[in-house]
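2024-03-11 09:14:02 INFO queue: dequeued item ATP-dependent DNA ligase, len=335
2024-03-11 09:14:02 INFO validating residues
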Amino acid sequence: MYLRCPVEPMLARSIDHLPAPEELRGGSRYEPKWDGFRAIGRIDKRHGVHLVSRRGTRLNEAFPELVAALYEELPAATVIDGEIIRWGAGGRLDFAALQERLIAGSRVPELVRTQPCHLIVFDVMIVGGEDLVRRPFAQRRQVLEDLFTSVPPASPLVATMHTDNADEARIWVEALSTQGIEGLIIKAAGDPYLPGKRRWLKLKTRHTIDVIVGGVTGSPSRPRDLIVGRIDPASGGLRVVGRTTAVPPAAHAALAAALTPAGDEHPWPAELPSGWAGGMYGSPPMQYVRVRPDVVVEVSVDLAIDRGRLRHPARFHRLRSDLRPDDVPAGLALT
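2024-03-11 09:14:37 INFO prediction written
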């Protein structure tokens, strides 16, 4: 049986402050923003399970323990929306472990035993063949909670934390930031499920940190993005930790006056390997221009870190002409 379900998941747009509860239709509901892979789980009429990514990529082979749990715990003719996560050994979300699953091939059974994953479920579109897409979120959430009353606590399927109390949600963010929870998702209690629409809101926890500029895209006289680094505590060398979004035009002149082109004595290669300055590992090398690593800038970053690097672009905040590279802390620890 083909289940009519959203071709695209409902999406979220970024905001910079928590909206007043009355601003959203039916009031505000709050959930943690998980750092993982978005996934739609579909259990068809014959209890066949289909786990797919946000863009429709099949995930059954990479996460067989989640496929088994969907088969065992949820009724046929059901469609749920959630996030695949992996808790690392230190109790922090481990995004790199999820990426490893996608390319593990024959090693998947071993990783299921040594690095099991969870599916955090935060919405339900169809249950037992009943279409809930047009129902308000508050009703869908109640159906989800009822659905999970029979799911064992040890199951890799988990209903996400949820509250209508903004103060409680803020406490979550403060308490869970060390585990890699990126912030909050805010939903309108009265909204239906709207495939492909950015009607949910996401408020990310951000910090400002100082970093050393080691390269630019564009040119040193007119930099577009900055490639930034910090000293690696283990090697003592300057390590790439990420890149910024587009530098504001108002900062071009000051940066151009401070940046100096560098030659082959620079500690970084002429092309940056994939994943060093954001993006997925396995993508093409990044072209950039090396500059002398003697300029410090302050940037705003979220909590997503992958293998000691920022997974999302930082936002340029200001030039720190009052600091030298030796003043910048070594390593990349945001908590």
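2024-03-11 09:14:37 INFO annotate: The chain has six helices and 19 strands.
2024-03-11 09:14:38 INFO item closed
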